Amino acid sequence: MTDTERRQARRSYRSEVRAQQAARTREVITRAARRLFEKDGFAASTIAAIAAEAGVSQQTVYTAFGSKAALVRAIVEQMEESADAAAWRRRIASEEDPARILTAFAQWTRAFFEASSPSFAIAQEAMPELAELTAEGDAQRRRALEALIGRIGRAGGLRDGLPEREAVDRAWLLTGIHPYLDATQACGWTPAAYADWLAESLAQQLLAAPTCDARS
Fold it and tell me: Are 206 and 149 in contact (CB under 8 A)?
């Protein structure tokens, strides 16, 4: 290895170490912010308080995130990780039967909302500052549903006369946060009961009726 190659390797190593340290710092700050938001509320939790809770300087918080709204965005990403989003995506992709695809998606929706529930109050209080994040989340959910409904449509699983666009609309309406909150808070359902209802509702709204064997 030449001297130039050694210097490049050292720079690459140092850069990787700095990136790992920055990621760990962001994680510590995010967890600290989530604790304070849940305990004291979004408005009452200042950057100074978050920095003290995380054991870092205020400048470190600003450098890592820039604003409290960006911290809420990081918390939402953390929610997805805690709900094991990657594993759920693999499971949904592995299913081939339309009803099983929708059941897996309903169970993933339940898992995400259940993991996120302690932070719903944060999101609601911070809503005026998070309009862009909310819109991004809604758009991301619609894109996921477009891909999912597209798979079912190509397999001939959609009910007769139902355009894919309307199927996506119906699924998007059913899988939002408000039906989950209504079910689990207003109606007192368990998250499991909500997931069963969602899977059944998606199937009723989207799937072709099963055909009966003429010999039966």
Answer: yes
Whole-structure pTM value: 0.71
d(CA 96, CA 29): 41
**Cα(89)–Cα(92) distance, integer angstroms:** 5
Structure tokens at 14: 């140092």
pLDDT tens for each residue of 53-108: 999 999 999 999 988 888 887 887 777 676 677 888 899 999 999 999 999 999 99
The 3 state secondary structure assigned to the chain is CCHHHHHHHHHHHHHHHHHHHHHHHHHHHHHHHHHHHHHHCCCCCCHHHHHHHHCCCHHHHHHHCCCHHHHHHHHHHHHHHHCCHHHHHHHHHHCCCHHHHHHHHHHHHHHHHHHHHHHHHHHHHCHHHCHHHHHHHHHHHHHHHHHHHHHHHHCCCECCCCCHHHHHHHHHHHCCHHHHHHHHHHCCCCHHHHHHHHHHHHHHHHECCCCCCCCC
Tell the residue number behind the tokens 């709900």, with chain if given: 83
